Amino acid sequence: MKFFLISDNIDTLMGLRLVGIEGVVVHSRKDFLSVLQSKMKDETIAIILVTTKLVDMCPDIISEIKLKQQKPLITEIPDRHGNSKIGETIDGYVSEAIGVKL
């Protein structure tokens, strides 16, 4: 089982290639959905990494896939240009779960 990256910029792709993760760079919603659909059919891929900007292009489709599909796992990753609020979201989940504001 392996990782695969779908990115909106070459920097993230090159960085992850250094650790052995292959991927592609796409810029349009149509191209993103096409690559995502084809990689979801690939049985050798366990985790698909997607940059925040691409997830923001079609959050409804990503949410539906995450709810309905067991494999592969789709994980949002921030890139160096992003101003993602992932850390704040995780803090919110933890605070809600334990009842203490972090």
TrEMBL record:
State the Gene Ontology terms under molecular function: proton-transporting ATPase activity, rotational mechanism
Q: What sections of the sequence does the record tag as coiled-coil?
A: none
Origin: domain of life: Bacteria
Does the keyword Ion transport belong to this entry?
Answer: yes
Signal peptide bounds: none
Q: Which UniProt keywords apply?
A: Ion transport, Transport
InterPro entries xrefs = ATPase_V1-cplx_f_g_su, ATPase_V1_fsu_sf
Tell me its family: Belongs to the V-ATPase F subunit family.
| Protein name according to UniProt | V-type H+-transporting ATPase
